[in-house]
Fold each of these.
Amino acid sequence: MLYPAPPRVEPPKEPPLEWLRGHDGEGDTFALCAFASAPTAPTLVHFHGNGDQVSYLERFARSAHAQGLGYCAVEYPGYGMLSHRSPSEASLYRAAEATLRQLEQRGISRSRIVLSGQSLGTGVATEMATRGWGTKLVLLSPYTSMVDVAQRLVVVLPASLLLRDRFDTRAKAPSVRIPVMIVHGSDDTLIPVEMGRGLSRLFPRARFVELAGRGHNDLFADQTQLVWRQIVQFAR
């Protein structure tokens, strides 16, 4: 239930898009990247939601590259090109950090990395920030913890006892000292906006952006690309 991966779709592989393959010690890793032309440009490293896969993020990679930024969407075990692996909180963290180390080996320093996560991916992005990666953090529709989300959805069961993968962002937030931008829709029925607001008070350097009338899956649904433009500006 926590990892409802969509049917695998192979992402494109033509300039400026590249496949970044690696290994995390337990299995393959994969990312879809568009590397910046300028050696000092920031690179957005993105962790997607639980119903996504990196092949769905092609437009963001192309847009970031066109605006002079780098972009790298990290795939999760159990998803897309890694559908042969099993997802878990630990395996997502291993794959994420292995990809970040690959980027560092390619000359993309930690000072150039901007971490980004959406929904499920906000927990992965936050964990990477606690490990010293990135100089900025973008959280789109974040949750306080996966236990809190599960308890809202299944009120009659003790989620704290049943859920193994916790993604406890609330506990980690106070230790994240880099600038954070949190974006949340006011009408999100899956992860309520109150969770985003609450997290903005826990991160020491957070900015909260509430989008009136937006839900969980439509943050990028307007033609003006308001949210994407704010993310690019924040990354710069």
Amino acid sequence: MRHVYEGKTKSVYELEDGNYLLKLKDDVTGENGQIDPGANTIIGQVEGMGKASLLMSRHYFELLNKAGVRTHYIDANIDENTMTVKPAQHFGEGLEIICRFKAYGSFLRRYGKYARKEQPLNSLVEITLKDDDRGDPLIVDEALEHGTLGHS
């Protein structure tokens, strides 16, 4: 097993069979002491965060697989906080899928005039480009529909 990448919330290892092992961490991201899943700075750890993220990821990958949507997911080991995946070609530097339960951090920076801190967001899912220099821009339906993100 070869260490390939160290991210804020996971470590990535290449397995001998060519697949990858993702080891999820209990690290949390945020700014100014406030947890924000869309932030780019680790502010601490929350025990069980890696396991919770893995459980949610496994749930959605298994739903996609049951619906016949091809993914890179192979399996997950909840006891070890790991997920095994196939190699995948990512878009640009990658995408971030953020599930928000309350209004914090980058969400408030974007919508602060219209939202209040800690306002319930009912599991709002945001998809952003992995691009720290540009503040991880949101991907919106219109950009995808008009092919904006499909051309280099």
Amino acid sequence: MYLTDKILCKEAEVFSAAESRHQEHTLFGVTDGKAVGTYLELKFRTYLLDKGYIFESGNSASGLDFPNLNLDMKVTSTRQPQSSCPFRSLRQKIYGLGYSLIVFVYEKFDDPGMRTATLRITDTIYVEKEQTADFQMTKGLIELLANQGNEDDVMDFMVSRHLTSDEIELRRLAESVMTNPPEQGYLTISPALQWRLQYRRIIDKAGTVDGIYSVYKSTSPLVL
């Protein structure tokens, strides 16, 4: 059976519940968030393959875990729910990343007696690509346009948000915003060598706004 977004979300719910009870020896004492993320991403893909689903594996060309679904998987700790993603264009901050996200948020507990670790999945969230732009950037632009802002106003706003100092790029983006207003995004996207995505808002908003769905939410604390 070919994997679809709907099936992926359903299986992510089942996987999250099972993983929250699993005791893993290889993660005991591990504090590297990247190592935990790699473990969970590989385990979820293996879980899907073992269930017989057909999907395209992630590749360096697309940079996505599920290219045929135009979807990327993110794993992040509740302590600091954020991760990096490849920078493609400044337009991503206004119009979104260009692909959807499935985000696993976890708490890690080590059991010294058993020398195992458990990843309690607190939230699993599916974010449609249309909602992956920066919250403050899109909110400001939408309000500006609603108040009859013009192209120069849009440029000034983008400068005030430190989007870029390149006037040619600013003008091009402002023209695009005037003819194609953005939708409200819900990520916080910070510039770095790569985009830094912060997920606190989507955790809070999951299930309450269009395009952000709570796939799984833990209802009880982990008891070891």
Amino acid sequence: MAKALKLMLASQLQEDLEENAGGGLLLIDPGNLTVEASEAFRTELRDSASGAKLRIIHNRTARVALKNLFESESQDLGALDDLLKGPSAVVYGGEGPIAIAKIVRDWRKKNKKMALKGAFADGEFMPPSDAEALADMPDLTQLKAMLLGAVMGSPRGIAVSLSAVYGGLARCLQAKVDKEEGGDEASE
């Protein structure tokens, strides 16, 4: 009976991750979060990362669910066994692993016992060092703004150049007209 229950819990976790963790997830050691801190952390995840979720997980359940979820990616998940020791939680959903990593980084500054165990982003497993680098990457909104700036930079440069050329031509013509008008008055 216990084995069937564990398989059912793993299946539920896997289904929830398939539905909500399309972009990826982070595995953390929540450390010594109090109930109040846990609620504040969940609220910030929900508000700042557009609905991200924190779920405290049993290591064996998580191991089964994550291996089933990412087995089709044909990668070695042996490192996952080493990471799923001690207290574990999975943070997923919302805007994806980059937005979540930024919030986790900020919370780790407040709670020194919280640790990042690893991440899955776009089907790739990342060890803790690579998962920490996610927080330094620009998120989707920032990438769109950067792309728009790059695309609009060239037409803007052309427009400024043409404006300068035509502005210079207009000033030269005005100077010529002013000189000729001044010359006609001087001859009278």
